[in-house]
Fold this protein.
Amino acid sequence: MERPGRLLLQSELRVRNAAYDVSLSRSLLIWKRRTSSPVYHPFRPRFCVPLFPRRPDPGVCHSVPVSEIISVREEEEENGSRQRDDGSWKKIREREGKDCRQAFTVLYVERCRQHRWRCAEVTFTCSDEAVCQHWVSSIREQLASNTSRPKHLLVYINPYGGKRQGKRIYEQKVAPLFTQAGISTSVIVTEYANHARDHLKMEAELKKFDGVVCVGGDGMFSEIIHGLIWRTQIDCGVDPNSTEEALSPCSLRIGIIPAGSTDCICFASVGTNDPVTSALHIIVGDSQPLDVCSVHHNNMFLRYSVSLLGYGFYGDVLSDSERKRWMGPARYDFSGLKMFLTHHYYEGTVSYLPAKGIIGTPRDATRCRSGCVICQHNGQLNSERSEKYEMDEASDSESSGEWRTIRGKFLAINAASMSCACPRSPKGLSPAAHLADGTTDLILVRKCSRFNFLRHLLRHTSKDDQFDLTFIEVHRVRRFRFMPRHCQSDSDLELDLHENSKRQIFSQICKDHPACGCAPAYSSWNCDGEILTHTAIDVRVHGQLIKLFARGIEELPVFEDLSNPCAI
Ligand SMILES: Nc1ncnc2c1ncn2[C@@H]1O[C@H](COP(=O)(O)OP(=O)(O)OP(=O)(O)O)[C@@H](O)[C@H]1O
């Protein structure tokens, strides 16, 4: 709970003709109705006993953290009718013979349902011009002293993302808020795929900006991070292709204005896909670090991933749905059902480097939320629990040094660097995964019956633990490699021959002929919604490589008013 701290200003002002004691400290703006200004409640029964006596009447006392004030605007109030000055400073002159009063409006963040934020406003009036101006300048001073707020932003809009509403969403919902908050912008409407990535890599004058804004879906966000990470490495003299070098973290934060058909990264970091909420998180200067996985094949860089890397089921669903783009968003349901019925499994070897000395496991009941302690420490907290988890690690894995190896037949191999929650799957693929703990959750779904796979899939939407099934393994890892069976060396293949020699030979020959009943030899990787061109990959997690204008999903308070200092 925020404490008011030392008072900077205190005055008696009026809000809608009622007198309020208004105070400003470095952390809070509080307005509290004077007891001598009662509000008439015609329908409140006299014998009504409040259930929660400490809960204040929301009409009596309000408080707003200074960090959540969007802007302050000077108004002119003339006999009750107000005129706006469109956010710009305008000297208010006394008018002869008229009852002129001074007024100013504070715009601030108001929380609505389901993690949505709205821009609310309150207008204070007073008869003294000097007092009014003192209030306006004091609030502006406090806002200006907040160095985490962006002043200049570079905005990329994908006009073709989602329902092709990116430009309209930005112009109607976001740009007016940026103007009110005094943020200047350089806007680029992309003209072709990878326009934003290449502009960031080569042309953008990044020193002029405090952040980059992406208006689009997950594909557009992926373009932005590829451009920004690449550029940062080049500027810092790091080889972005290296599999071993530590990458330099990007200093510019990225804001996501959701305008795509899939906006999972926005949902996972803010809790909702709402352009206004995202714009307000940018304005107040929120910062949420995010882990990034680099994906290499034979020491060659392929892509970065921040959410899901999926081989088998999720790779097949994406490949199939790409061929059915004409179906619109329904293609994901269609391909999902088709791939579930097809029930392909794939053989290969997974090796991984378990995350050691961390607190938290993929099967925790706690969730990564705003101010997550685990992420604040980059996952580096030792505890008895994490040691116990390390001892419980999979029994049938071979370990060589730090690396562990698992060979088998898998319906799906998923690496979730965040929960991957979305409106369709509110728990996500790995509900306890963290945004910024330097790890990814490696989920192995071994070959099982269709019925069992369905049980696993259904658990993504139910309360049950989706990993509490015998054919599922989950490991929190810092790095992993996958080698499909058809790419394994001769000696590796010989080792496996005694298991299923005949069937394997047929699967090589018949991979395009499902009628023969054998599974295809390989699937493809779904990397944050893009198909990777290679199946044998080496994945490394880079802890907190980028930062978003977000704060993680906020925990909803049980009684919101208790967070109000006026209640105590
Ligand atoms: N001007 C443009 N013309 C064509 N493609 C573009 C343009 N700008 C960006 N793109 C590409 O469009 C792809 C999809 O964009 P975005 O993620 O914003 O929308 P989406 O509807 O969520 O996409 P998807 O359906 O693929 O998830 C991105 O991969 C991006 O590279």
Remarks:
- DSSP finds twelve helices and 23 strands in the chain.
- The pocket of adenosine-5'-triphosphate is lined by residues 158-162, 190-195, 216-220, 223, 260-262, 529 (CB under 6 Å).
- The radius of gyration is 28 Å.
